[in-house]
Amino acid sequence: MQGRVLSGMRPTGKLHFGHYHGVLANWLKLQEEYECFFFIADWHALTTDYAAPQSIAENSRQMVLDWLSIGIDPARSTIFRQSSIPAHAELFVLLSMITPLPWLERNPTYKEQMQEIRDKDLHTFGFLGYPVLQTADIIVYKANKVPVGLDQAPHLELSREITRRFNNFYGPVFPEPETILTASPKVLGTDGRKMSKSYNNSIFLSDPPEAVEQKMLTMMTDTARKRRTDTGNPDVCPLFITFHTLYSDGKTIEWVREGCATAAIGCMECKRSVIPKVLDFLRPIQEKRRELEKDPSLVSSILEAGSKKASLVASETMAHVRSAMGLS
Fold it and tell me: Over the stretch 22-46, which tens digit does the pLDDT of each residue have?
């Protein structure tokens, strides 16, 4: 193995194509090359949804079922729940003692979400300090690799700064986590915006075939094609960008480009040519999910086993931390 990877997802329930191509496809590759720790970030969910935690447990179960159905293997990767490992919270407290407040206030995501999210009160220490918790999540396992998209790289740089500051004070306890930049294809929803549950425009990995087909048939295309005879541009068509580029072969893509640009084919023909390919991709995933759902205790047993393994690693790290800080 080339090193240790740490990555997590907030428990939002069933996952869609955006999650698959943005995160899970990369996890599948990483578990072949690294020692991987994948976790349910349920404490992070509370930074914005602290007033409504009722759905976290079921959302976590549904999310892990999707992880397993696409091929994340608990025999090769450690799968666990963040809140099951108290060491995350202990290290979060200790790191918060040394993290300068301006470092957190300059965080671009903090500024953006404070402006954009108006229906929740985000003036909490937990929301401001989530990068410190994120750092604790990573370094409590002495993970030296963290997969992130280009837009998330500044977040990891803050974790690197906090880690560097700790090591400067107390000695070289932690490796500085390195970025594994991951290319994420653009995945657009049925309305042409980024695929997101909050936009109600998602096609889920667990959607039954008839639902997938219906959503794709009603998906937005090039708005310039108001009539069948109008010519179009596939490069601005959400369906082409998301599904043809990811699931169609070169010959089909060439056929779509030519047919759309000359109005030789209509949007419904374009959609129907890729729907079977998407359903073929989903078929084994959904078959595996149905098998997994037959065992109601499967997810909890996997999380319990993963938490035990994660706890051993985290406990060893915290013994080192306490010794370095003179707290043992």
Answer: 999 999 999 999 999 999 999 999 9
- Beta-carbon contacts of residue 99 (< 8 Å; ≥ 6 apart): 129, 132, 162, 165
Residues 230, 165: Cα–Cα separation, whole Å: 60
In CATH, 4-186+297-325 is 3.40.50.620: yes
| Segment 141-198, tens digit of pLDDT | 999 999 988 777 778 999 999 999 999 999 999 999 999 988 888 899 999 999 999 8
Number of C-alpha atoms within 13 angstroms, CB side, residue 168?
A: 8
Per-domain boundaries in the chain: 4-186+297-325, 207-290
CB atoms within 10 A of CB 150: 11
Neighbours of 250 (CB within 10 A): 7
Is 202 buried (19+), middle (13-18) or exposed (0-12) by CB count in 10 A?
buried
CATH class of domain segment(s) 207-290? mainly alpha
- For the cut 90, the answer to whether the pLDDT of residue 86 exceeds it is yes
